[in-house]
Amino acid sequence: MFMRVVFAVVGGILPATLPAMKKIHLLLCGFLTLLVGGAHADATNPPPVRIAVWGLVHTHVHGFIPRLLAWPDVQLAGIIEPDRALAARCAATYKISPDLFFTSLDALLAKTKVQAVAIFSSTYDHQRVVETCAAHGIQTVMMEKPLAVNLAHARAIEAAAKKYDLRLIVNYETTWYPANQAAYQMVCEQKVIGGIRKMVVHDGHPGPKEIGCPPEFLEWLTDPKLDGGGALMDFGCYGADLMTWLMQEQRPTSVFAVTQQLKPEVYPKVDDEATIVVTYPQAQGIIQASWNWPYNRKDMEIYGQSGYVLVPHSDTLRLLKGSAVENETTLTPPALHGAAADPVSYLAAVARGDLQPAGLSSLKVNLIAMEILEAARESARTGKRIDLPSVP
After folding, report:
1. Helix or strand holding residue 344 (H, E)
2. What backbone phi and psi angles, to 5 degrees, belong to 187?
């Protein structure tokens, strides 16, 4: 609601004579400036939010810890990791005191207080960790994507959230892309290309082993029980999350998927190639998730009734209004700042009560994304289209 109000206000003060592209750029800048300013307007130097990290086996943790250590308004309360060798490597890499490493949440809480937990375990362990945090009174929890290993685990996490009034965040790298946030405003709020008719999301890389993922990550990432699948889960979740967000939390009517093992000698237990077709009453989404791309990619295309918005890079947009492709315009959205800019700031803001998890990070969006992934997995197994019930 806040986003719509800000855009209406900013849009109302722009002269009608401004060129369309200039107006769109100013709208984006104005929205993001007001959003960031509003998030911090009432801040009066509150004490740092104490955040614990649970698990070191998800390699994305190595993007999170440096941010956490560098941010002035957060503090590392401790790291829970039962693998002592892995904990020792982490301590040496980031020059963290060994006293901040624990083998369990109980051991950590016996020494210090925790306001929020960031989970970097296997996806299978998300349910257990969330329920453990809830039982210990920790109400703000973030897990690295996806929400859960399957829909049953996701429903259990939902039940814990309702019972204990948890604030849950699901973190995706793509949430913090300025171009994705700008694309949402243009397509869903300003409707510059009319109603969405087709979405195509490409995610992946040459393969986790090929790009050098460490053994502790590969061990569970390529295990069908601990990860729920291969490329379909690892990268299909990005598309399911983005499409659910763009479709305003609308549940699809059907899902059809095809998976392959193009490298069975490397990944004998899980798929390394997946294509998922997600059908809505008036739109279609195509998710292309792969461990076989010749390069790393996370990009998307959004086609509407009267044009398109393409997001080829995290900081670049290509906009076409109408059908004359020579009129395509390339835009560079403003950088994100404050609580909307990165997972550490967002987690801290939620823990302080300044924000409620929303959009790409929210439990509601990610429950629908899990429905899509579960149906895709079943479709790939059976070779049949999976029709989703009208009520979950």
Report:
1. helix 343-352
2. -85, -45
CATH top class, domain 49-173: alpha beta
Strand order in the sheet with 307-313: 329-331, 316-321, 307-313, 297-304, 196-204, 283-290, 273-280, 254-260, 386-387
The segment(s) of the chain belonging to CATH 3.40.50.720 are: 49-173
Instruction: Indicate whether this model's pTM tops 0.85.
Output: yes
What local confidence, expressed as pLDDT, does residue 392 receive?
Answer: 77
Tens of pLDDT, residue by residue over 328-383, are 999 999 999 999 899 999 999 999 999 999 999 999 999 999 999 999 999 999 99
Q: Within 13 Å, how many C-alpha atoms sit on residue 162's CB side? A: 7
Side chain identity at residue 98, one-letter code: P
Query: Do residues 213 and 59 lie in contact, with contact meaning Cβ atoms separated by under 8 Å?
Result: yes
Q: Which tokens belong to 194? A: 């009319």
The Cα–Cα gap between 132 and 16 comes to 55
User: Mind listing the pLDDT tens digit for each residue in 91-105?
Assistant: 999 999 999 999 999
Of 312, 284, 327, which Cα lies nearest the Cα of 196?
284
Task: Measure the CA–CA gap between 359 and 369, rounded to whole angstroms.
Answer: 12
Q: For residue 38, which amino acid is it?
A: G
Q: Is-contact 51 118, C-beta < 8 A?
A: yes
User: Phi, psi (5° rounding) for residue 198?
Assistant: -150, 140
Given pLDDT bands bounded at 50, 70 and 90, which one contains residue 1? Answer: very low
Please give the pLDDT value at position 391: 78
Average pLDDT over residues 152-177: 98
Residue intervals in the chain for CATH 3.30.360.10: 177-336+360-387
Q: What class does CATH assign to 177-336+360-387? A: alpha beta
% pLDDT > 90, the chain: 86
pLDDT tens figures, 136-161: 999 999 999 999 999 999 999 999 99
Q: How far apart are CA 146 and CA 238, in angstroms?
A: 8
Classify residue 282 as exposed, middle or buried by CB count within 10 Å of its CB (0-12, 13-18, 19+). Answer: exposed
**Alpha-carbon distance 390 to 64, whole Å?**
38
Q: Go through 181-196 and write b for each residue having 16 or more CB atoms within 10 A of its CB, e for each that does not.
A: bbbbbbbbbbebbeeb
Residue 28 pLDDT class (50, 70, 90 cuts): low
